[in-house]
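Structure ticket #2291
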Amino acid sequence: MAKRNKLGIGLDIGSRTIQLSVLRSSKTGIVLDRVASKELPHDTIVEGTVMDSQVLSDSISELLREQKLLGKEAALSVSGRQIMIKRIDTDEMTDEELSSAIMYEARSALPFDISEVSLDYARMPQELDSGRMEVLLVAAKNEIIANATDPVRWAGGRPGLLEAEPFALQAALSEAGYLDSESPVASLQIGFQSSDLTLFHNGQYESNRNLHVGSKTYVEELIRELGITFERAAGILARTHRTEEEQHALERIAHGVAEKLADLVERAMPEYFGSTAERHVGTIVLCGGGAHLPMLQQALHDKFGIQVEVANPFKHFGINSHHVDAARIEQGPEYATSVGLALRALGEIHTGFDLLSPSHKKAQKAAAHPGSGLVIAALSFSAIFLGMVMMHITQENRLSALRSKLDDLKKDTDVYRDKIALVEDLTKKRADISARIDVISNLDKNRFARVKLVQLLNRTLPELTWLTNVQETTTPRGPGFNVSGITSSNLKVSQFMTSMLQDADVKGVDLLVSEQSVISEVDVTQFTLQVAFPPLGLISTGPQTPADELARNAKEFRDKRKAQSEMKKK
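Resolution: structure written out below.
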């Protein structure tokens, strides 16, 4: 069992609110020492991207200072499309062999250069003597890790652990007993801008999907229905006491949004929620700030006919009544992730992953032992100097051997001159045939690209939005297209961009133009988006490319052979 810490601090930074949970380990069990939250100004974080780092850092600093936790280590998380979770099937191997092979496996499984990401991995439970094994790989780009940890450091905190949110939820729900069921259990973490659907089976992670509906959808519909400001709409959603007009509007909106979210859940995991599913989910557990959204629990129950519970991650903890009041306990679902992070920070039986980059971990060790810097520097210099001397001797020996080998090769070149010429001729012919075959193959791959483009636009185009132009182009992320159109508001443009980003073939969407204008006395928004769409770039740039490359290689070989002949004459 891992060493138990006396204090575990979990800090969950959402797009709308920062939640803090502090757990304390005692002889009788785990005690909820304190919980607190801090609301962020609107658009401080958008789609997981920090738009105002100063405001975020100040809010975190204020929260830590109020709870007297400045300078203490805290566990953080990353979620949604910011993380990559991959299952790798490979041959059975020991832990030492796996440690050596994991970088090779990661290069094959991840869509990024391995130097750009930080990763962690774990062996999955498996049948004995199968000869195969599964490894769960969790990774995030280094810039994502920096965006998650830097504001906490600037605020006076110490990032001690960086966990993927599904595994923080796994720790919290497991401790609360929600994952004890033999049937699969789904957790629906409802955030402000999006939701995460995570499936667990036998208490372990199975899969995860990100859904583009969250509490913000309710707010946007209230704005459209009542013609009010964002702050007032958010206030209506948060309050329990509303005017009759506000209550009727919210009920109409809630019914449609809840059904939409239920449909997204079914489409995201049809193998568990579809009408023909072979493995049925037994329970849905609602977590996050949107767990108490109106009509959501009933809509999910009506849709799937299964038990739907609102999570209470505190139910098996002792409560420090001096710091935690009853109102905070009622907000339990909002703190599910921060509680899971605090459990991970305690070092209890809830194991998981740590995505802190190696450089950051080394910096922490250096900070813990500041007097060791000079000793390490001196040892490093001595080792480098000795290494340079040994390398010089080794290189001299290798150069002597290579000179002798070069003389032998010069003699062999004259013997095989005619054969080399024949090989060059055959190489050219082979390159020509290969180039023609590649053109045919690329054309075949690309034949459905435009059809997929039209289907993408048809599927993602919002209501009250008309397209005026679609043109293929080259984007900073590769092949793609520019799409221009007219719509009723900037919200429709944002909805259009978000919907396209859900498609697996879309690698990025950028807003090039957004202008307000008037058409027939109606205010409209004219926009142009640039979409990275790799399927449009499968056609080869020209049939001569492989042949030209081989021809250049052949020319380099002839030039080298000519130089060798001249050297021999000299």
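Closing remark: The two ends are 74 Å apart (CA to CA).
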